[in-house]
Amino acid sequence: MMAVPEAPPSVQRKMTMIVLAAMLALVGIVSGAYYFAMRPVTLKIAVGPPNSEDVKVIQALTQAFARQHDRVRMRLVPTDNASASAAALADRGVDLAVIRGDLEVPKNAQAVATLRKNVAVLWVPPPVKVPGRKAAPKITRIAQLAGKRIGVIGRTPANVNLLKVIVSQYGLDFSRLDVVQFPVGEAAEAVKARKADVFLAAGPVNSRITTEAVNATARDGAPTFLAVDSADAISQNHPVYDAAEIPAGAYGGSPPRPAEEIKTIGFAHHIAARKGLSDTTVAAFARQLFALRQAVMSDYPVAAKIETPDTDKDAVIPVHPGAAAYVDGEEKSFMDRYSDYIWWGLMAISGLGSLGAWFASYLRKEERSSNSSQRGRLLDMIASARQSVSLDELDRFQAEADEILRGTLDSFERGGIAEGSLTAFSIALEQFHNAVADRRTVLMSAPQDARATMQIVARNP
Q: Sign of the CA dihedral 447, 451, 452, 454?
């Protein structure tokens, strides 16, 4: 069995360098992909109004994100209110926004988390007893609000619209209500001064603003809470609202306020991301958010109420795919996301290597052809050497054979010819040397006059 010829050392070195270069290129590609995939990202988040609980919670989370030195950071963009935050997200001026679920949701908004859930609280202050004056009829149901003065806490039009949704469900003409709004900072004083017959507040069950306003009315007796008995119907007609309950004693006091559980409607504030934001980035943000919310709970208990988004397909605000991957435990690792690219990169490098080898072989085609002709010339010189009549001619043949040998070895070092071709050349060269040696012996042994005669005959055949 013939032994498999080994590649010449220069070819082996070239192949080693090519393989090493390909490996370095692959490592560079993977390293670059990892850097760009895992580099820190700063997301702009819109939230308002200024000095609100939402702003304070997001600000605390922003600081916690920065201390963690994790992949995602936040930069707070303050706005006037939730509507302005939604507008900033719609205009793609920010990456995230805290939006109110019962307002118009931008078409490019996708839910990442539920920041807090809110309830609508309607209550009637206890009547002020005036000696000699008959007390006004007590308000115990929403249907009795026609013609009454309703005080809405907060300047946002969204709370007025919330009131309209409630009273419309009971067949009341909203235009017949005397609605007045009070700034949050003036709510307690407005309640104490009895500037309205009924008050409406919207916020978390444990909202400090709502608690202070309710307790301000309790100085003269127990307030009357109005139940939204049609909460389920409202939820059906307006999917942005949910049926909710206010637990007994939610606002403290003795006896507790309210004395029993009160049915009402609720809505949520969401952290939404703009559609198109990287799934990987959003998944990383959601993971950090739920990991760090406990870090701010001691200062802002409302952070404990941050919840995962609704991942149902019929959710009012569709969930972002990155957040859904985090919630469902399907978040992909770096290799999961880029293994296909790495595999195809390896295939591409292999293909390029094969193409490069073919191209190099094609470029050496002329070199192989030249070497073949040189080998043919060597074979012709064997026949010429055997018929030579001059030692000088044999010397010229030898010098030419030496040049052919040098060129052949150089070509072999460059990989221009194969081992088999070099072997064939070696056989031809050996035959040439034998022919030269034999002819030299013949010429050297012949008398000088005989050599002269042979030269004359050669010149004049």
A: positive
